[in-house]
Amino acid sequence: MDNLVNKRINEVLKGNQDAFEEIVTLFQHRLYQVCYRMLSNTQEAEDIAQEAFVRAYINIHTFDQKRKFSTWLFRIATNLCIDRIRKKKPDYYLDAEVPGTEGLNMYSQIAAPGELPEEEVERMELQERIQYEIGRLPDRYRTVIILRYIEELPLQEIGDILELPLGTVKTRVHRGREALRKQMGKM
Amino acid sequence: MNTCPEQIVHYMHAYLDGEISRAEERELKEHLDNCTECKEIMNSLSESITLLGSVAQVKAPESFVGGVMARLPKEKSRAGAHR
């Protein structure tokens, strides 16, 4: 697949915009899925996933064809998702780490944003409930959990996407799993 | 409260990442057989992962590709690019 993708990229680089359409077609569902899981909103997911492709197109000359295109594309998309999440939250500074703690931030001290009453959560359909629980994860854990368990990517590839060392990815996956376990305790 | 050896939690995660050694796995299994509290933690970790895996694959809407193509900047004129 990477060969085909690189062939199309070279055509785009020569000025053939139509060649980009095939690239979009190939990756649209994976990219949309990741954005939807990150943002829990179909309209925003469509907007951000489309924007990610537009940015990829504009910056296509910076893509190193020795690398995996999907990694590069996912990096653009996850960065856009995180920007969007932070812009929506006027209190995004709560995400800053509390000094002297390992990965603990102010969210640990307060209820998750958008937390719903228990009765309402219990009435949810399974699919809706899972998305709700993903959406309650702090964004640094949410990203790795989505890439690991919904995209089913290897840890190393997640590290490449997020430009994080493998050890950090592992720690975030572990913390994300712990957080989910506690959230989902009563399912 | 929890007096279990600290490495047990690490083993649980190593197990879930498929990165546990045989010796560690044996130690983990032995512990879980004798500790209901840890066994419960292990089970609920696995369960939440299974639930994530059961999530329906969502697809981009029909109009998606067309939408991207319409948002792309206008093609540069070839004449301008090659002088």
TrEMBL record, chain A:
<protein>
    <recommendedName>
        <fullName>RNA polymerase sigma factor</fullName>
    </recommendedName>
</protein>
<feature type="domain" description="RNA polymerase sigma-70 region 2">
    <location>
        <begin position="24"/>
        <end position="89"/>
    </location>
</feature>
<dbReference type="GO" id="GO:0006352">
    <property type="term" value="P:DNA-templated transcription initiation"/>
</dbReference>
<keyword id="KW-0805">Transcription regulation</keyword>
<dbReference type="InterPro" id="IPR013325">
    <property type="entry name" value="RNA_pol_sigma_r2"/>
</dbReference>
<dbReference type="InterPro" id="IPR014294">
    <property type="entry name" value="RNA_pol_sigma-W_bacilli"/>
</dbReference>
<dbReference type="GO" id="GO:0016987">
    <property type="term" value="F:sigma factor activity"/>
</dbReference>
<keyword id="KW-0804">Transcription</keyword>
<dbReference type="InterPro" id="IPR007627">
    <property type="entry name" value="RNA_pol_sigma70_r2"/>
</dbReference>
<keyword id="KW-0238">DNA-binding</keyword>
<dbReference type="GO" id="GO:0006950">
    <property type="term" value="P:response to stress"/>
</dbReference>
<comment type="similarity">
    <text>Belongs to the sigma-70 factor family. ECF subfamily.</text>
</comment>
<feature type="domain" description="RNA polymerase sigma factor 70 region 4 type 2">
    <location>
        <begin position="128"/>
        <end position="180"/>
    </location>
</feature>
<dbReference type="Pfam" id="PF08281">
    <property type="entry name" value="Sigma70_r4_2"/>
</dbReference>
<dbReference type="InterPro" id="IPR039425">
    <property type="entry name" value="RNA_pol_sigma-70-like"/>
</dbReference>
<dbReference type="Pfam" id="PF04542">
    <property type="entry name" value="Sigma70_r2"/>
</dbReference>
<dbReference type="InterPro" id="IPR013324">
    <property type="entry name" value="RNA_pol_sigma_r3/r4-like"/>
</dbReference>
<dbReference type="InterPro" id="IPR013249">
    <property type="entry name" value="RNA_pol_sigma70_r4_t2"/>
</dbReference>
<dbReference type="InterPro" id="IPR036388">
    <property type="entry name" value="WH-like_DNA-bd_sf"/>
</dbReference>
<dbReference type="InterPro" id="IPR014284">
    <property type="entry name" value="RNA_pol_sigma-70_dom"/>
</dbReference>
<dbReference type="InterPro" id="IPR000838">
    <property type="entry name" value="RNA_pol_sigma70_ECF_CS"/>
</dbReference>
<dbReference type="GO" id="GO:0003677">
    <property type="term" value="F:DNA binding"/>
</dbReference>
<keyword id="KW-0731">Sigma factor</keyword>
